[in-house]
């Protein structure tokens, strides 16, 4: 017996559409994108987060996740990625029940900053709203984003992550079928 | 599994017509065609080398009762891969296994063995005995 469920119904076009959505999200930090054609992911994976990993992870990208054995089996079957126990050893991280220390993750090197990790973080709520004021590359003046369910001290950890530029970790926030990206260059202030 | 991998889709479908109906299934992955690198070892125990790539079709399915079956077959026959995966899952169920074994697997295995014997007999007719040739001179 097994709890395996199908991945993308049509893997190639669906993964390409997700990749396009992620490019748009990274180019316009904080803007919320809605994905279509999502896989039936096992709990506690959010469909958008599961789709991101099916799109990005493969046999050459170690993955760290805290989503439990059913989700791990699903990801190993569909993405074929190795799973690691140490967050610092992973290229992609999927945090469904908390958040690993940003400072402990792979941040790349000064010569090769693209070797850093990408953290896919599931949050309770994500919409355009008055929580944060985002500025930085890809945002003309400022962008407002309301995120629920982040741990206390996130803003300080994010500021420290940005201060390491060009090194640092990129973040993808997911809830349900929506996602928003925060590349390492985005600065966040509390709005209001 | 080897019997199903060597049988073609028509042969499996023909045998299935006489077997109890298979439960409904959902496709977990595929059927999809790709390449795998076939590796060999010289003399069976030498250093491994890449012999070449071969076309393989794979499929994974889940039956309504939760059993998961996988199949990898040589070639591009997606229907064969899917049928083999469904049978792989159904054969794991002890209540279905005896009926499927006697209706599908054993006749297929017997037909394949008969074909292999026939081909071996045809090949044996043209066999050259090098030892005999040496003594005839």
Automatic annotation (TrEMBL), chain A:
* This protein's UniProt keywords: Transferase
What EC number(s) are associated with this protein in UniProt?
Answer: 2.7.8.37
Q: Identify the Pfam families for this entry.
A: PhnH
Entry superkingdom: Bacteria
Example GO biological process: organic phosphonate metabolic process
Q: Which SUPFAM superfamilies match?
A: PhnH-like
What one GO molecular function would you report for this record?
Answer: alpha-D-ribose 1-methylphosphonate 5-triphosphate synthase activity
NCBIfam families linked: PhnH_redo
Mind telling me what this protein is named?
Answer: Alpha-D-ribose 1-methylphosphonate 5-triphosphate synthase subunit PhnH
């Amino acid at each position: 017996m097994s709890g395996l469920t199908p991945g993308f119904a049509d893997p190639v076009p669906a993964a390409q559409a997700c990749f396009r959505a992620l490019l748009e999200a990274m180019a316009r930090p904080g803007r919320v994108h809605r994905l279509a054609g999502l896989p039936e992911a096992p709990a506690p994976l959010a469909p958008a987060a599961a789709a991101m990993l099916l799109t990005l992870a493969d046999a050459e990208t170690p993955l760290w996740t805290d989503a439990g054995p059913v989700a791990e089996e699903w990801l190993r079957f569909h993405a074929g990625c190795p799973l690691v126990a140490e967050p610092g050893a992973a290229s992609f991280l999927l945090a469904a029940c908390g958040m690993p220390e940003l400072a402990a993750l792979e941040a790349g090197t000064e010569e090769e900053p693209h070797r850093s990790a990408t953290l896919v973080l599931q949050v309770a709520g994500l919409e355009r709203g008055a929580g944060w004021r985002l500025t930085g590359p890809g945002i003309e003046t400022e962008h407002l984003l309301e995120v629920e369910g982040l741990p206390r001290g996130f803003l300080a950890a994010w500021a420290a992550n940005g201060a390491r530029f060009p090194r640092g970790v990129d973040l993808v926030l997911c809830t349900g079928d929506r996602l928003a990206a925060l590349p390492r260059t985005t600065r966040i202030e509390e709005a209001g | 599994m080897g019997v199903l991998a060597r049988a073609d889709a028509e042969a499996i479908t023909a045998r299935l017509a006489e077997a109890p109906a298979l439960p409904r299934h959902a496709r977990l992955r595929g059927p999809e065609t790709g390449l795998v690198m076939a590796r060999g070892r010289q003399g069976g125990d030498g250093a491994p080398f890449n012999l070449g790539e071969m076309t393989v079709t794979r499929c994974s399915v889940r039956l309504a009762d939760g059993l998961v079956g996988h199949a990898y077959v040589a070639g591009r026959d997606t229907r064969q891969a899917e049928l083999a995966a469904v049978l792989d899952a159904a054969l794991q169920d002890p209540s279905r296994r005896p009926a499927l074994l006697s209706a599908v697997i054993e006749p297929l295995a017997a037909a394949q063995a008969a074909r292999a014997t026939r081909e071996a007999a045809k090949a044996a007719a043209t066999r050259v005995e090098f030892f005999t040739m040496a003594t005839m001179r």
